[in-house]
Structure formats: structure tokens, C-alpha cells
From TrEMBL:
This is ATP-binding cassette domain-containing protein. Transmembrane segments: none annotated. Pfam families: ABC_tran (PF00005). Keywords: ATP-binding, Nucleotide-binding, Transport. One of its GO terms (molecular function) is ATP binding. Belongs to the ABC transporter superfamily.
């Protein structure tokens, strides 16, 4: 039974690519739930199945077996009609690792947001312009930056544009797929603090895909550990990272160059440039 506070309910998700000798099981038997108000992290090394699992959650990849329901909507069923695709977009949006690759490098920021709002019939022209200004204020983009194209912005500013675009349709869930991995550590901390502020303002929940346990520790309350497509450990983020039960989780934790991510306030000091 799926309760009203359940954001994601996944049961026995399996994804197989290829056939015969070329068959590859990317995700095998993944079952978990995510509840409202508790951000969920999915961690694991490259090739562990994190992004494949995220794509099934968003309905971008059809499972070989199993099912996944997001906010009461069955994401294993294809969204064929335009209206169905728009409704699905209002459920989930994704922020990718490479903001430059996910944005038109020649399209001004205001135009990026205007296009999304037009597709979703978000009011008249005046209402859309007000919404664009609201979104830019929310993610910390200045008036001057709004008229620039992504190629004229820094990496952190581009990611702010990507976050604003994801927020434009007021989704119930935002999937952050290594969303700060391409940024240097001081900009990472600024974006993480921004995401926290945005969540406080909008109530949107986050599903975080990451190999970086410091980032996961900062932004999530619950975590899933994936190894070769299988969930080997899951639970509260603090408990799993501080007292891992599975050997693979311990290896992930111990591979972090510094264990200072555990110390309270470290990321905040980095964001302010005072943690040299």
C-alpha cells in the first residue's frame, strides 16, 4: 500500500541491457521507499547502476521487471500523449552533472525559462515574466546574468540556471544526478546550500545520485548503497555512513581522502571561502 507521504515506491526493479553473451544486468531487484520530507541518496561507484535506477524512477527507462510509483503515478507505463508527458514532467525533473551539456549554449537564461513555461501553458506573458524573475531570484541569478547565454556564465551559474529550469514547473521531486560533481569544492558547497534554501522555500523533495559521501551526508536523510546493480545496504544516512554494516559501504567511506566531511559546519565554511 502506498501512503500519501510516499514519494517513491520501488518493488523488485530490474534492468537488463543486451541479450545472450552481451547481456548486462544494470539493476537487480531494487526495492525501497522514499517518504516526503526525507531526501534520499543513491551512492555507489561508477557503473553500479545509480543513473539507470534514476532513469527508471523518472520513467525515462522501462524496467525489465518490477515497478516504481512516484507520487501515486506508475512510472513503468509509457507516457505517450503530450498531456501525459507534461503531467509526468510536473512530478519529476532532473538536474544533470554537466549543466553546459544540458543547456543550449546560445540561448539566454530568460529564454530557457520562458520556453519551459510556454510549453506548460503557465499563464499569460506577464505572468510568465514574473515567474522568470521569481525563479532567478530564488536561485541567486542577477538581472545581468539573466540576459546572458550559458557559454557566458561560470559552471556554478550554469548549474543555478539548470536548477531554476527544473523548478519552473513546480515538480514534486527533483533528481540530482551528480549535480555538483563537475564543480570545484567551494562552488559545490554554495550550490548545496542553495539547494537547501530552495527546498525550504518550495517543499520539493530531492533524490540525490552521487559517489561523494560528503555531499550525500550534507543533503540527505536516507541512503541506498548500490553495488553492481544490487542494494547492499540502506537506511538513515547518518547511521549507514557512521556505522556501515556491509563491507562495500565501509570501503566507499574509507576511500574518502579526508574524513572531515563528518565535522559539522565544514561545507558551510568552505562555501564562505574560510576553510583553506
Amino acid at each position: 500500500m502506498v501512503h500519501d507521504d510516499t514519494v517513491i515506491s520501488a518493488n523488485g526493479l530490474r534492468k537488463v541491457f543486451g541479450r545472450g553473451r552481451s547481456e548486462h544486468v544494470a539493476v537487480h531487484g531494487a526495492s525501497f521507499t522514499m517518504t516526503r520530507g526525507r531526501n534520499l541518496g543513491i551512492v555507489g561507484e561508477s557503473g553500479s547502476g545509480k543513473s539507470t535506477l534514476a532513469r527508471m524512477i523518472m520513467g525515462l527507462e522501462r524496467p525489465t521487471a518490477g515497478d516504481v510509483v512516484v507520487c501515486g503515478s506508475d512510472m513503468t507505463r509509457p507516457a505517450h500523449s503530450r498531456s501525459a508527458r507534461r503531467e509526468r514532467a510536473k512530478l519529476t525533473q532532473m538536474v544533470y552533472q554537466d549543466p553546459f551539456g544540458s543547456l543550449d549554449p546560445r540561448q539566454p537564461v530568460e529564454s530557457v525559462l520562458r520556453e519551459v513555461l510556454s510549453i506548460h501553458d503557465s499563464g499569460d506573458r506577464s505572468a510568465r515574466e514574473l515567474r522568470i524573475a521569481e525563479l532567478c531570484d530564488l536561485v541567486g541569478l542577477t538581472v545581468a546574468q539573466r540576459s546572458r547565454s550559458p557559454r557566458d556564465l561560470s559552471g556554478g551559474q550554469r548549474q543555478r540556471v539548470a536548477i531554476a529550469r527544473a523548478l519552473a514547473v513546480e515538480p514534486r521531486l527533483i533528481v540530482l544526478d551528480e549535480a555538483v560533481a563537475a564543480l570545484d569544492i567551494s562552488i559545490q558547497a554554495q550550490i548545496l546550500n542553495l539547494l537547501t534554501d530552495v527546498q525550504d522555500a518550495t517543499g520539493t523533495d530531492y533524490l540525490l545520485i552521487s559517489h561523494d559521501l560528503a555531499v550525500v551526508s550534507h543533503l540527505t536523510q536516507d541512503v541506498i548503497v548500490l553495488r553492481q546493480g544490487e542494494i547492499v545496504e540502506q537506511g538513515e544516512t547518518r547511521v549507514v555512513l557512521e556505522e556501515p554494516q556491509h563491507r562495500y559501504t565501509r570501503v566507499l567511506r574509507d576511500s574518502i581522502p579526508s574524513q572531515r566531511w563528518r565535522e559539522p559546519g565544514v561545507l558551510e565554511r568552505i562555501a564562505l571561502g574560510s576553510d583553506g
